[in-house]
């Protein structure tokens, strides 16, 4: 098109160097494909540089997931300790790697984890980014320059006894455990907020609904306690996933046969990883199966989707219950968080439940991605674990933030519209259901029809027709009985059955 400059492909060593360095000071690093100029001030190296050139996809670096960086550092730290223990790595080098990893766990150098979360190679770029950063931190601690790998190698030392194919799945599982633990904290607080509203609204009667039509009475407290209970179930299901994620395949190396790893390594690294992470770790009984299988990721993602869908349904209910406020249900007041329209003055929208709905939609989509990626693995390895990791870790982050904002900016400030609720119960023909044990279904149906066509009160009609006394109606239609808190309603009196006369 005239007047535009064509985009140059990111290929070739000269262009790659220009993209990575911006013309600043560099150092030269070499791998099996050749040499590249690396910015002199970074802690990553040539393998990371190639990934930056090859995978400009998501524009979202792995540093967006601090839990993954902590997990990677724990795995590398545990490996260094295991290698030192079994005598396959120089103790001085092992101690330096250990110390470098500890600094990453503490939050240092996270900006050096720059490879994109979406990458080819089954996570190799992420593993190499970690190896290079750890090596260069260690070199600096040893008094050497960055890139002087003859003193501390990213591969021969930091990656000793390891492969991407055991490091990466172990790290992303551990990161998911950290993410679930963080989500569970906020999820429990949200559950408690719903339960507190259940207590606050315990004696406020309202009309229950089925299929968006008036049903029988209940209390607003029962409705909110129901929300709390359904969240409790998801808390339990999410908690149950953690032990499955704690099964690791460290020691598997490339495909599960343990090639290049000492036979003592798997147990040693498991023990050290357990100690460092504070989470129980179990070596998979079949490392070949564990390296190829992505089933646990489907379980984790599916459980998270379940929690998201159920939370979204609750948010749908909140939006319905607060709709109006004049022309909708208008049973509750959500906290006003921001102006709702650029054209309609005074309009306030349920923006907090809406954003939680959107998080749920994203989690549903992410689960579909995880399912497809798990199915697409071939033979001894699933090459698509990066998109699995990204999908689940993002869903965990978003769900955690969604729980927080829903609790703080919505649930804790909800108020009941008691005037409207009282009016709706008084006008509802649904209360007639409570009278059927006393007056029979046929009479109750007739009363309901009359009330609907005349707008008369059910209670008044029952008394007027002499079916029950005012005191009996008051007792049966009390909030405690209508909501089931006092379940006894009495027995229905049936007319005596008489056989028809014989003609």
From TrEMBL:
Pfam families in the cross-refs: FumaraseC_C (PF10415), Lyase_1 (PF00206)
GO biological process, any: tricarboxylic acid cycle
InterPro entries assigned to the protein according to its UniProt record, in alphabetical order: Aspartate_Ammonia-Lyase (IPR051546), Fumarase/histidase_N (IPR024083), Fumarase_C_C (IPR018951), Fumarate_lyase_CS (IPR020557), Fumarate_lyase_fam (IPR000362), Fumarate_lyase_N (IPR022761), L-Aspartase-like (IPR008948)
Signal peptide per UniProt: none
GO MF entry, a single one: aspartate ammonia-lyase activity
Fumarate lyase N-terminal domain: residues covered: 34-365
Region (Disordered): 1-32
Gene3D superfamilies membership: Fumarase/aspartase (C-terminal domain) (1.10.40.30), Fumarase/aspartase (Central domain) (1.20.200.10), Fumarase/aspartase (N-terminal domain) (1.10.275.10)
A GO CC annotation given for this chain: cytosol
Keywords, ordered alphabetically: Lyase
Residue span(s) of domain Fumarase C C-terminal: 432-482
Record-linked CDD domains: Aspartase
PANTHER family: ASPARTATE AMMONIA-LYASE
Protein name: Aspartate ammonia-lyase
């Amino acid at each position: 098109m005239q007047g535009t400059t064509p985009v140059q492909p990111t290929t070739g060593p000269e262009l790659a160097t220009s993209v990575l360095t911006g013309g600043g000071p560099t150092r030269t690093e070499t791998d099996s494909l050749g040499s590249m100029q690396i910015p002199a001030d970074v802690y990553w190296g040539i393998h990371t540089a190639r990934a930056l050139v090859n995978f400009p996809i998501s524009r979202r670096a792995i540093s967006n997931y601090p839990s993954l960086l902590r997990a990677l550092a724990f795995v590398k730290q545990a490996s260094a300790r295991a290698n030192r223990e079994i005598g396959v790595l120089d103790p001085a080098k092992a101690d330096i790697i250990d110390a470098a990893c500890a600094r990453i766990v503490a939050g240092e150098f996270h900006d050096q984890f720059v490879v994109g979360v979406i990458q080819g190679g089954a996570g190799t770029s992420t593993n190499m980014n970690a190896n290079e950063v750890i090596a260069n931190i260690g070199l600096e601690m040893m008094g050497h320059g960055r890139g002087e790998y003859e003193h501390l190698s990213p591969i021969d030392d930091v990656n000793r006894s390891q492969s991407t194919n055991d490091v990466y799945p172990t790290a992303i599982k551990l990161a998911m455990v950290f993410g679930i633990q963080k989500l569970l904290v906020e999820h429990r607080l949200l559950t408690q907020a719903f339960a507190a509203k259940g207590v606050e609204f315990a004696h406020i009667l309202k009309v229950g609904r089925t299929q968006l039509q008036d049903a029988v009475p209940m209390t607003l407290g029962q409705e909110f306690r129901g929300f709390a209970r359904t969240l409790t179930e998801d808390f339990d299901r999410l908690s149950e996933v953690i032990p499955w994620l704690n099964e690791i395949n460290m020691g598997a190396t490339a495909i599960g046969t343990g090639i290049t790893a000492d036979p003592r390594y798997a147990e040693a690294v498991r023990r050290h990883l357990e100690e460092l992470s504070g989470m129980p770790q179990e070596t998979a009984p079949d490392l070949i199966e564990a390296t190829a299988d992505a089933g646990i990721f489907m379980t984790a993602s599916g459980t998270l989707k379940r929690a998201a869908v159920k939370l979204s349904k609750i948010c749908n209910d909140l939006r319905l219950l607060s709709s109006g406020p004049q022309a909708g249900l208008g049973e509750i007041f959500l906290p006003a968080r921001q102006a709702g329209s650029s054209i309609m003055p005074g309009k306030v929208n349920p923006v907090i439940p809406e954003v939680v709905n959107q998080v749920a939609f994203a989690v549903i989509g992410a689960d579909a991605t995880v399912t497809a990626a798990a199915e697409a693995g071939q033979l001894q390895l699933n090459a698509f674990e990066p998109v699995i990791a990204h999908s689940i870790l993002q869903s965990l982050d978003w769900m955690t933030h969604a729980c927080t904002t829903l609790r703080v900016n919505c649930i804790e400030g909800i108020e009941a519209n008691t005037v409207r609720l009282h009016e709706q119960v008084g006008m509802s023909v649904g209360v007639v259901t409570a009278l059927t044990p006393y007056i029979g279904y046929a009479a109750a149906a007739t009363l309901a029809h009359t009330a609907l066509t005349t707008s008369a009160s059910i209670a008044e009609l029952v008394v007027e027709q002499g079916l029950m006394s005012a005191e009996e109606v008051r007792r049966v239609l009390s909030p405690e009985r209508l909501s089931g808190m006092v379940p006894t309603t009495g027995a229905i009196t049936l007319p005596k059955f008489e056989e028809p006369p014989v003609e």
